[in-house]
Write a structure and sequence with these properties.
It contains 4 helices and no strands. By secondary structure, it is mostly helical. Helix 2 (about 20-30) crosses helix 3 (about 35-40) and helix 2 packs across helix 4. The longest helix has 12 residues, at about 50-60. The termini are far apart. The radius of gyration is 11 Å and the shape is globular. The protein has one domain. InterPro entries: Cro/C1-type_HTH (IPR001387), Lambda_DNA-bd_dom_sf (IPR010982). It comes from Bacillus carboniphilus.
């Protein structure tokens, strides 16, 4: 199973649940792999607004009903 014993943010848990890898999200969103790693593993990390939009656009290709508040406290 994905994500066992790894600290994960809401975004990381969503990726695990969908069976996707961080590099898939990095490629789809055109966000650097380092930023994706931080967004998926650090619960307190809130990306800049432009990065959030890129990530959400990529996420919505899989889950059209996803909202920013699903992943980050606004």
């Amino acid at each position: 199973m994905w994500g066992i014993s790894k600290p994960r943010s809401k975004l990381g848990k969503w990726l695990d649940k969908k069976g996707l890898e961080q590099r898939d999200l990095a490629k789809a969103s055109k966000v650097s792999p380092n930023t994706i790693t931080k967004a998926c593993n650090d619960k307190d990390y809130v990306p800049r607004q432009d990065v959030m939009k890129k990530l959400l656009k990529a996420v919505r290709k899989i889950d059209p009903n996803a909202k920013m508040s699903d992943f980050w406290d606004m």
